[in-house]
Amino acid sequence: MAATSLNDSPAFQRLHARHAETRGTTMRTQFASEPDRFQQFSMQAAGLTLDYSKNRIDTTTLSLLFELARERGVEAHRNKLFAGEKINTTEQRAVLHTALRAPADHDTLRLDGQDVGADVQAVLMRMQAFSEQVRSGDWTGRDGRAITDIVNIGIGGSYLGPKMVCQALRSFAHSRLTCHFVSNVDGHDLAAILGRIDPATTLFIIASKTFTTAETMMNAHSARNWFLQSGSADDLAKHFVAVSTNVAGVTAFGIDPVNMFPFWDWVGGRYSIWSAIGLSVVLLVGFTNFRAFLDGAHQMDRHFQEAPLERNMPVLLAMLGVWYRNFHGSSSVSIAPYHQDLSQFSGYLQQLDMESNGKRVSAAGEPLTTASGPVIWGDTGTNGQHAYFQLLHQGSDLIPIDFIAVLGASHTLPGHHAALLANCFAQAEAFMRGKTADEVRADLTAQGLDPAAVEALVPHKTFPGDRPSNMLLMDALTPATLGALIALYEHKVFVQGVIWGINSFDQWGVELGKVLAKNIEQELTGMAKPERHDSSTNALIALASAALTGK
Ligand code: F6P
Questions:
Q1: Whole-angstrom Cα distance, residue 148 to residue 442?
Q2: Are 223 and 153 in contact (CB under 8 A)?
Q3: Between 338 and which of 93, 350, 362, 424 could a Cys-Cys bridge form, CB atoms 3.0 to 4.6 Å apart?
Q4: From the candidates 188, 386, 529, 551, which is the catalytic residue?
Q5: Ligand 1: which atom is nearest the Cα of residue 213?
Q6: Contacts of 409 (CB under 8 A, 6+ apart)
Q7: Burial of 25 (0-12, 13-18, 19+ CB in 10 A)
Q8: pTM of the prediction?
């Protein structure tokens, strides 16, 4: 990462000045005076169109943002990423999710003696063969019937990616197969699914990079116990497979390594959907579609590697985000997919972005002197419109929005898709234009309200506008466009990490709570004497102990 602090970067200082200079300019006036704003500020890559014209930018601001990207060494860091350098310095790991989606004939990479490309292809071939057996019905359960239900047990990256992608590609799903996802240690999650499935036709995938994650291990053991209530241990192999980097852990759990699909420590959990963690996706949509998904991501990788920064979609998205985060004080970004099948996308991006860039020290361990990763949140656009869009339009914070829209539908219900797209485009227009007090006044007067009533309503019905958004468009939601979309955000997050000078690939912040939970669990279950916590934690433990033990 860049050695100097971001604050000291000359381009960063110039951007501060630029922010002050452009304070009075609105997007509404820019659109009025620049008729080719869309042509100027839109681009295409890997099957995606990005319209970034509704941002508080002009060519001068943009060139300063690219200057900042160059000063922070985005190009050099990008090269290190693809070259397999150990850029996850706190764990001494390479970060090679891009190698998972490279085609078979791609230049191979050697990492610590490992032929990365060959290993990736070998696992993909195993996933293909297994998925073909399950999908064709040749892989049968304990009583000879074909598999109907797949239960992926995993959490974090071993859950969010497969769940989001299975949902996004549900129009490509095998008609006999249903995928379920269990992540929560809360037994209500697993119990609800066990109540709906037949053990004899269910395949459990225990998905855990480490195979030590407490929630996953507890769910996996409970699922196995449930299975054994009606079946024998000899049948386990037909119903339990594992995806992990930990052969010993998988074997100790009782899954034969033959039924384990491996991946490697250079695949971060939140970047693992491209690895064997995508097994549920392969089973549901088939290997050809999974390969297309990888290829779509690879197209975006190539674009990210080859395009100049000024025409580089992930870099553009990243630098626009930096503009709002560091110069406009925006502490969150809202994601608004206008497609029901992308309903899990914001949740997926939360882990990708917030686990990567939710850091307050630099890669060198120095405290950051600027803000870093924002909060990522959102829901499908139409639902958000009727919930929190009020705050986005008229609230006191400036929250940039990423709209994601798909031009073609995979259903044939008349009218719906036009209504959906109309809403999406209307919202983006409304955020940009707003509605001035004079416009409100004219509307209300035309409706026949008396002047006093008009003036009373004007402040409430005025929209400040000038609220920025990106519009990401694709012709259809396909495996390839979905792959490109995810890779776009991965690289955006990477570039922002470089700008802020942080290690985007570790996640130490999740550890403390895990350790404390282990201790408290022991106290709650009587395995350890209650420790001295603070008075709040002590009281909560006492209440829960009483409820759990009935004493
Ligand atoms: O606790 C956070 C985390 O380590 C994530 O980074 C990871 O995706 C998740 O837990 C699950 O980890 P595993 O795949 O090892 O079970």
A1: 61
A2: yes
A3: 424
A4: 386
A5: 16
A6: 416, 417
A7: middle
A8: 0.97
